[in-house]
Amino acid sequence: MTEYKDFLAQQVMLGKMNRREFMGRAAAFGITLAAAGTMFDTAAKAQEPKRGGHLKLGLEGASATDSRDPAKNLSQFMFVTSRTWGDMIVETDPLTGKAVPALAESWEPSADAATWTFTIRKGVKFHDGKELTVDDIVKTLERHTDEKAESGALGVMKSIKEIKADGDKLVLVLSEGNADLPLLLTDYHLVVQPNGGLDNPDAMIGTGPYKVTSFEPGVRATFERNQDDWRTDRGFVDSVELIAMNDATARIAALSSGQVHFINRVDPKTVDLLKRAPTVEILNTSGRGHYVFIMHCNTAPFDNNDLRLALKYAMDRETMVQKILGGYGKVGNDFPINGTYALFPEGIEQRAYDPDKAAFHYKKSGHSGSVLLRTSDVAFPGAVDAAVLYQESAKKAGIEIEVKREPGDGYWSNVWNVQPFSTSYWGGRPTQDQMYSTAYTSKADWNDTRFLREDFDKLILAARAELDEAKRKDMYRTAAMMVRDEGGLILPMFNDFVNASTKQIKGYVHDIGNDMSNGYVATRVWLDA
Amino acid sequence: MAGGSTQGPELTLPATAGENPQSSGVAGSNTTVTGSAGSQGTLSPWARFTKSSPLVALILQRFALSVALLFAVSLLIFGGVEALPGDFATTYLGQSATPQAVANIRKDLGLDQPAATRYFQWLGGALQGDFGTSWASKNSVSEQIGKRLGNSLFLAFFAAIISIPLAVGLGMLAVHFRDRLPDRLINVVSLAAISLPEFFIGYLLIMFFAVQTGIATFPATVYDTMTIGERLSAIALPTATLVLVVLAHMMRMTRAAILNVMSSAYVETAELKGLSGLRIIAKHAAPNAIAPVVNVIALNLAYLVVGVVVVEVVFVYPGMGQYMVDAVTVRDMPVVQACGLIFAALYIFLNMMADIIAIIANPRLRHPR
Predict the structure, then answer these.
(1) What are φ and ψ of residue A441, in 5° steps?
(2) Is the CB of residue A236 less than 8 Å from the CB of residue A51?
(3) pTM check: above 0.95
(4) Most buried by CB count within 10 Å: which residue of A240, A381, B19, B228?
């Protein structure tokens, strides 16, 4: 009852439900009209942002080795830091994941989706008072294209052949058509800096809602509100403080004692304990990140599709989600895309745990003896437990899996993408195209399942340049089916992003783009005293 | 150990030898060297110097040995870091390492050069106090370490000035009330404290003083713009944890060492003279128990600076330990090596000081047979 009330109130606060809809639902639930009216008003009032206050966030993932240069930002801590002081050329809509204007007001593709023209916003000022020009954006993109900058966005920039300014417009020419180009520009490394950051990439000067006042890598970052911000719908608090807290217990202690307003990475194992604290709110958002078991399609014994299918049917996805994610996640269907992506191929049958089918395919594969699975807890939280769970469910199908625990140190260089069967983790990508072309096309840098299929490559390439959405959706459906039924990927679960805050925090946006409201948490929330 | 041949029965403390084999071993070997040189009769200038001012000679020798040891350690650190699986380029880029990016980084950092060249370059820089730049953040390592080491020493200093007098005082009290209630109480409490892992003590303190009562500051993050008052309040909980962790060790050592001396003949004489118990302990027994106690204190002091990673993580304190762990994770070699060398130097220095104090406190160590 109260939970449902809270849910309704939350929907109103998020602006997902209007008064009429709310009254209807509340009445259906047996709440009197007058009471429902008051409830709506309270909830709606809570939706109005309040300004002022000092916001403190305790974040995991900071390191003394963090770089100030957004091109080299890798950690969760730096992700939020750069989103707080900087702006992108394009942003994504938190609910639909579609591209929305940021520093570019609008854009226009050519018919083949290979040339894109962006109109750049006027009257935007950098923190040092300099006005934003098209030139700054051109230089920014050029810097990230240069290999010397060691930019994390280098892979994204590869397909851009030419970057130029046309008057006050930005023109990008691609080597082949890409209907998703605006989404590629939302990569969090591509923060627009004065003169592209060529003079001083570490200056932390941008156009964002907050100016950096101090930064100590691995310790803390502080910000004050940018009075000249070009937007009014963000930057509600006066000052922000990000504190590095790599210990999960320290984060929980800091939150429950009210020393910070928000923490990230709440362990699914402790989330129920944390929930008991009356002042705490759990914020879980469906994400695109997924935990995977990967087989090399070109290495024996995994070069046999029947064995791969047997191993797929031997996976008990529901139990995985319950036991490893504590219920904070969704089951996967052996292709790396879920409903948070635009053009998600609906209606593909959910693969379920089926020992009989697994046994059937296993027998058909002709394989005998055990299958060696390498894992480590760095692959994803709980990976070793997951491997053992998998071993148990496979045993019922008559498949013997030998679990080998590898040292976490060096796992990414010695095991992942090297050994034929291992556990791993994938963060989401802004588009289906990017997800597939990062890990599933033949020439992908990280084709960790060794999925080498010419027809698949061609399909992805064709879908990339296709501007007709219906046709494109169909193509992605075919692609998904190929990976699901013939690929080397076992994808038991998509993990939710589990964060927590005190009840003082209002306006948290559950952004499907990425963790911590897609990194914008500090700029989107406000404090309710 | 050396104790058997050079020291009187009242100073034969098996516990000491067990606590600090390294430093007593070093002191012992020194003693033998000087002894043999003296007995040969052919007096070199050094031997004459040894004869005329044995204390200074011993200290100088001890110092030279420390420097040699530090060099050996530098070689070990470099070798150990080289032997770590995975290199910076792949680890730093993590799951997103493309062969191209890896090659770029390795070339930029000179990782393609032979290890020997890199070792001497590094050592040359380190001798001048220049530890190079961090590979990951491109910041000056010396500058970063300056800040972090300052934080670590700040914390260690307060933990030390609380725990050392407390430990020595409690040790003396325990001896005074030997086998009576206060002694037992001190023993039980200190044993309990030493049996709990430090992170657990830390969590308990956080739970009581930060979460439930809210009287203490948490997290213990310190930064440049803090006033000294704020800093002190921030480090209250980690300091308390450290005090609890190191107290028992030092206290029990003090107790054992003094008890040992208490059974000797001259203490009996003092008792027969009718001196008060505490006076005997403080004036007659304690000075002779200095050597072993100082050794344990030195070890604990070193621990307070270099061994408190867990406490730093739990309390979110930006000290050296956390800095080194971060660096190891991404194979940021300049930082790892610099931290390793500084830690080693601290250990060696503190042990050396303990030995020197022991030599000064016990004149017999200066004149070996």
Answers:
(1) -80, 160
(2) yes
(3) no
(4) A240
